[in-house]
Amino acid sequence: MPRAERERQMMAAAVRTFGQRGYRAASMDEIAELAGVSKPLVYLYLNSKEELFTACVRQEAAALLAAVEAGVDPGQPADRQLWSGLMAFFAHTAENPDGWVVLNRQARTQGEPFAGEVMKLRDELVALVAGLIAAAAREAHATPAAVDRSGAADLADRDMAGLAQALVGAAESLAGWANETPGASAKEAAATLMNFAWTGLGNLLAGERWPPAAVR
After folding, report:
1. 199 within 8 A of 210, measured Cβ to Cβ
2. CA-wise closest residue to 139 among 79, 211, 193
3. Which terminus of the chain is less hemmed in, N or C, by CB atoms within 10 Å?
4. For residues 212 and 26, what is the distance between their CA atoms, to the nearest angstrom?
5. pLDDT tens per residue, range 91-127
6. Residue-wise over 146-171: b if at least 16 C-beta within 10 A, else e?
7. Whether the Cβ atoms of residue 114 and residue 57 lie closer than 8 Å to each other
8. Which domains does the chain have, with CATH numbers?
């Protein structure tokens, strides 16, 4: 078997084992057995348990970010971009539950260097969402908003950054809920967050719902 294929096989076994057993409880013996290789071969390819886990975190982070970026169509209005990005996020986390546990639970709780790898992913997601919020702001004002010299532009930037942080944090929590709730779908999770973040709680209570008929 080519080296690259064998590494993919071992990485898949590692993600599954770390996701289901946790970093501390998972053993290299279990990973080797699941991958159908010897433990020395796992060490030969990936050196140590810590390096193997770091590789898993990086792999899953890159895959999730790529999925979200691919889901966003820059040619669409801002609300459709956010909707499609959320759909891609929740679809990926639902299809890769072990990978999501590795990122959102295991890596975050094991300290450095693992937590730092997850923060890099989070920063990328926050930047992406902040860009969508900025696009929405531009759409809301046909021309760039006038900015005085009192620092309003800086305040607006902080507002967008804060909103992006809140939205990403909510998505992370909602993904865990969706994966653990029988029958919850990626579309349901995405619609829940769009209703809260885009439609707004006040409008939601008044009977408005996402997605509108034009998007369904």
Report:
1. yes
2. 79
3. C
4. 45
5. 999 999 999 999 999 998 888 889 999 999 999 999 9
6. eeeeeeeeeeeeeebeebbbebbeeb
7. yes
8. 1-47 (1.10.10.60), 54-205 (1.10.357.10)
* DSSP conformation letters of 93-137: HHH-HHHHHIIIIIIHHS-TTHHHHHHHHHHHHHHHHHHHHHHHH
Rounded CA gap, 32 and 16, in Å? Answer: 12
Inform me whether the pLDDT recorded for 157 exceeds 90.
no
Q: Smallest Cα–Cα separation from 54: which of 9, 115, 3, 133?
A: 115
For every residue of 136-157, DSSP letters joined together read HHHHHSSSPPP--TTSHHHHHH
How do residues 14-26 score in pLDDT, each as one tens digit? 999 999 999 999 9
